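As a warm-up, study this chain.
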Amino acid sequence: RPRETYGNERPYGILGLYDHLAGIRLDVEWAEDAAWRRGHKEPYLSWADFNEKHSKGWNEPWFTYILIIVCTGMLIASFGVNDWLMEPININPMIGPSANTLIKLGAKQTALIVNQGEWYRLFSPMFLHAGIIHYVLNMIALWFIGKAVEQCHGSLAAVILFIIPAVGGTILSALFLPEYISVGASGGIFGLIGACIADICINWSLLFSKHVNDSGDGTRFRHVRVLLWLLFDIVINCLVGLTPFVDNFTHLGGMVYGFLCGLSTIERLSTDFFGIAKSKCECARNVIVRFAGLILSVVLIMITTAVLVDSSGTGSPCINCRYISCVPFPPWANEDNKWWYCDDCARVTADAKLDSRGYYSLAMSCPDGVIKNVDLSDTAVTDRQWIRKQLPDICRKNCDNLFAT
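Now compare it with the structure written out below.
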């Protein structure tokens, strides 16, 4: 006889809802195991014995464990390469190493991918993090969501649901944010979240079934509250994606790919413990739907990769799309004193002219390639490094177009 309460709901957003759905799936498997044992005259397993057996051996979330270990090792390595120093919070608010260190370790930078052939940078960012805050947030999510998905659907499914969205999201980021470097396991984690959403959609009728949710307290639709927490979780992660070295194209792209892959790797639960007879048409439709999401994901990755190969590695097909992943901060600071900006002035170069009084003129190459001559005769600057640090501000004051084209 199945338990009267299916699964154990927990009040922490997507984790609680997906844990509840995983509990329902485990109850169904327990009931089906009991039916098989009855038919074969085998002794029944108690719930405790079945749950213990289900949690041991190859059902351990080994991929999640390995991923956490690798990400931890890479975070330590990034601080080591950075001489165990942390960047100022106005440069890296995630409390982490410098941009140059992240690039050395494999951060996504489109110019290096396209022009230098460093295609490994489509994979390496998923093991790097911008800093301690970024790492902690991602590892907490990976610990709960990754474990739930892997224990419920297996290690192979977890690998697919993490790797494909992570790579697909990085490709989208490389296309639309070519001037930004970015790192993080967020694309893969959002892929797992997208798979959870697919699982919820596929098994929606079971989640809201009167039979499964009949607890006598009149809260059959209590999952709506948890779905709102899911939305809240996504919004919080997207806000993190507005900071330097983290981007929302990887997040949202990973979630879309995760949803598509989830449709192909996640099995629909039957509302009948022992299965529902299906017609041939239903079986054919289910097979098509099951493979369509994975096939579509692979096709989209191939198309976006082809577009990336043909790009220059510097210009974005949608200049204003950068604001999906960047907001000048802090908003209350004046234009000259913000911590970070969303333009391309940080990468401008210039030739300085020098005489006996100091540097008197700059021939600056603006982000769009236009050369601007800037008069410095009134400043009497002799420090070359000072001019280098001031180039972004000089760009914003003198260039007509602040974006690479």
